[in-house]
Amino acid sequence: MDVPLLGCSSGSPIPEGGPSLLGYDSGMTWEMLIIAVARVLGSLPVLRWAFVGALIALLTDLSDLFLMNLIHLGGVRGYQSFDKWLDQVYMLTFLVVAVRWEAAPRTIAVALYAYRLAGFAAFEITEERAVLIFFPNVFEVWFLLIAGVKQFHLDFRRSPVLVSAAVSLLGVKMFQEYALHVGRWLDGFTAVEAVEAMWNWLTAPLR
Question: Which pTM does this prediction carry?
Fold first, then answer.
């Protein structure tokens, strides 16, 4: 999932050194290791429960923004690249489930996965976040839609509501890609600050 530079501790010096194996510095801080473990574990439930597991994976994906605010064990180096590498974990588990689907949804899922993977490669090569607007993570949207159809035993072909849901999800995803990687509207906030600002806005009429 695409997330902004919320909560990244790049604004303060990050001490050298981190978890090591036989004395070799891995280049990761303990904070990065904790986040990586959480993200990997959060990706696994989808292998057992496709729809619910996908929601867990996506919520876990967002959790690192709060973990970076709440734990201080060396910071996160190169957050955007770090996040995109970890995204590959949950996307791969999604793909493992998707290849078991019927031919049509499976083919679309594989194509969308490959498309996003190309975007990830382009981002790593160029180190430019704006390139991701041309490679939106529609694979994630498609997976949620099909997994939801299967979870609730819906008939995709006969329900215009599902078509509307698909279009709406795509619109939200494109808006998210632009807001995070082109407009970068949330880069100046930490996750906690963003939640506090939203809460203050929602509760302002009650004061």
Answer: 0.76
